[in-house]
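Assemble and predict.
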Amino acid sequence: MKRKATSVEILAGKDEVIRILEDSPQFITNWPYVVKVSTRDGLVAEILLPRFLFKFGDTYRFSVMKDDTSYIYDGTGKRSHLIVTVTLKEWQTHTMADIELSYKGRGEFLLGKPLEVLLKGIGNGLKSLSEAPKQAPVPAISSHVADEVDFADPMSVANFLVKSRMVHSGLHVVQKGGLLNLVLELRENLKDDVLYVSGITQDGSKSFKLLLRKSQILALEYRSDNEIKVVKVEDDASARQALEFVSRIEGAYMVNAWVPVGGV
Amino acid sequence: MIRNMNSYPLYDDGKHRVYWLGIEESEDEKGILTNQYLVIDGNEAALIEPGGFFVFSRVLKNVSSLIPPTQIKYLMYSHQDPDVVAGLNLWFEYAPLAEVAVSELWVRFIPHMAVLSAGRIIGIPDKGMEFQLGSSKIKAVPSHYLHSPGNFSFYDEKSGILFSTDIGAAAFSSNEWYLFVEDFEGHARLMEAFHKRYMSSTKALRAWVRSIRRLNPKVIAPQHGAIFRDENVGKFLDWLESLDVGIDVFENEFYGE
């Protein structure tokens, strides 16, 4: 029998995690390599584990057992037996989930890597499903979406872009320290306070994303060959840091500029 | 609610890889969930049917775990439905070096997605064209009137996978979801209503089947529903050939005698 174990820290209370574990069909649907889930006649899931050019598949009939701290998903297939045990420990507002996976049967000695991916994915899936209600991005007309843009969080940028229009796109040569001159040029024909400017070199090796309100930098992402820096401007120190990275930008960039179209 | 946030490898020979990018259901989709696919050859990728805002977070996360989005060379759209194109402005920014491939019929609509084309739009001519991706080719195969008047399937020659736009769409019931079709007859019952109502013309459908038989795909992967492989590819094409759809079915009902 092959056994693997991992732990994930979940930024949610135990009740929230239990809510996910209780919905076994949904929880199992979200495991990696699951290609079929049916509840027509008990809980049945087909899992296809890829290894080299082959797929090791089996259809498991699951029974679910639980006690105060653990959930056991016991899957019996035609050619293999799979057991996933999730044990929860609550710590303040967080929950630690210890997950153990046991596999016995066909391909047991070849499947180390895919079983590891399966285990890790079960943990990550449990974490993202449990934390989802807190993270659900809802673009709100009344909020200042531009202020919430943080380039470390792609959905905060998506929330901004989905309510924006592109006003410029073109190739520009940026002299060292000259990016803000380009921003001034772009602003000449715009009356919007908020401006989002991004640029990328033709080979994709360097890029930047910059969000401004008038002359104030709100957020920056800077990528070069060997460095990625994300700055969310919240005080003088982060503003100085953002300016320092802006001053480093130089070269030929494909530049796009976007402005909000209401409610941002 | 059906939700699988993980990608799944459909083909991998070490250099050329194809992935299905997960699935999630919104309340209004009524079982007709959207599939997105990623084809990678060497250092270049094509994102097929990128989808709308609702799925963007998952698709971006799964793409980013497989290849940097800056290496996406093509954003490939089969047609102009919102569940295919509504995230175009997001992908325009997140895949900044990618070109957008869509029927030339829809190019003039792109400014309505709030983006400037900036030389990044490829209008696919009605007869189709080929796209070079690394050392592989993706063919845009005419699929007009099925259901959109400017519609393309995309055929990845190396893997033998045909991305068949809405052709093959199925509506899942609430107690079952599967990625690959196993019981074709059972699955056909989930496809029939959609095809009869959404596909415009029996003639167009049969012409498409003829052209697809010439390609001889190993796998057919639709934008909604489940994926056909092995003997189910042939069964699916036979089923389509026997189906009457669209105006040929509804003429009297909609317009009277």
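Chain B touches chain A at residues 1-6, 8-9, 12-13, 53, 56-57, 60, 68, 70-71, 89-90, 92-94, 96-97, 114-116, 118, 120, 175-180, 182 (CB under 8 Å).
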